[in-house]
Design goal:
- With 280 residues, the chain is mostly helical.
- The chain has one domain.
- The protein contains 12 helices and no strands.
- Helix 3 packs across helix 12.
């Protein structure tokens, strides 16, 4: 019994890094020379609009959370949210959510309210991803996935039916998904991923989903592996898929989040100085 418990504990400790281990194993089947060549071929002018769309996506997502939790200084929430996203990219998604939850509690939001707000927005996002992935397919699994997505979205809307900012939450969610799609499409154009626009969005949505669910057994690196596996079915080389993953979810995301964090930090300093001089 003790051996079984020890084995389970070992698996729990290893689960966050199994994605990285699998990615390291996969690296033996990737030509790193070609990866670096693909990086040199990246069309840099396309990265600017991709960063801009990703900034818009994160700002709108932060505003959506602010609608749900109520009064909270936008510049502070932007800084907290961008930092939690950076942690999610660098570790596992659940770690970033934990940081966001703790920061909101320190900011005066009750643990119950903060957890409820995060759960509601994540259910909306998860539902939308399921719908996007499910509607483009004729299998029973696709149909089931679409139903799950619709059920999640409907459940959140029903639970929040008396909420005065429900329309704003729904509209901000739609704009979020639009900006996400535009960012992914411009990144794919920069890297030279030549498949259908809908397929690019679907593949990216699934790869986000793979790290999005806290119960995923793979942790960091899962997103890259998902992208490589899915794009391989469209005859995209592993090297190009890996470059696309790093460009979209590391380079673009880190640049966007860094810009937002710096801007919100400066915004808060300027606002505090103005408030100080006004009170004098």
């Amino acid at each position: 019994m003790e051996n079984k418990k020890g084995f389970t504990d070992t698996l729990k400790r290893l689960s966050p890094v199994t994605g990285i281990i699998a990615l390291l194993v996969l690296s033996f089947f990737v030509s790193w020379k070609e990866v670096f060549e693909r990086f040199r071929e990246v069309n840099l002018p396309y990265l600017a609009p991709s960063v801009a769309f990703n900034v818009a996506f994160i700002v709108v997502e932060t505003m959506r959370l602010r609608y749900i939790i109520g009064t909270y200084r936008l510049e502070s929430l932007l800084r907290i949210f961008s930092l939690s996203r950076l942690v999610s990219i660098g570790t596992v998604h659940l770690a970033g959510e934990g940081l966001l939850l703790g920061a909101l509690k320190l900011g005066g939001i009750s643990l119950k309210s903060a957890a409820s707000a995060i759960l509601h927005v994540r259910c909306l996002d998860l539902g939308m991803i399921c719908v996007v992935v499910g509607i483009y397919g004729n299998t029973i699994f696709n149909f089931f996935l679409s139903l799950v997505g619709v059920a999640l979205i409907s459940g959140v809307i029903w639970r929040q039916r008396g909420f005065i900012f429900l329309r704003e939450v729904v509209l901000s969610s739609l704009f979020m998904y639009l900006f996400f799609a535009l960012s992914v499409l411009t990144s794919a154009k920069a890297v030279g991923i030549d498949i259908g626009k809908v397929d690019v969005i679907r593949v990216s949505a699934v790869s986000v989903l793979s790290q999005f669910i806290p119960a995923t057994p793979m942790g960091l690196g899962t997103r890259d592996l998902s992208l490589i596996a899915l794009l391989s079915s469209f005859d995209v080389s592993r090297e190009k898929a890996l470059v696309f993953s790093w460009v979209e979810f590391i380079v673009i995301s880190v640049l966007s989040l860094g810009l937002i964090y710096a801007a919100s930090w400066l915004w808060e300093i300027i606002r505090d100085k103005k408030s100080f001089h006004h009170n004098r």
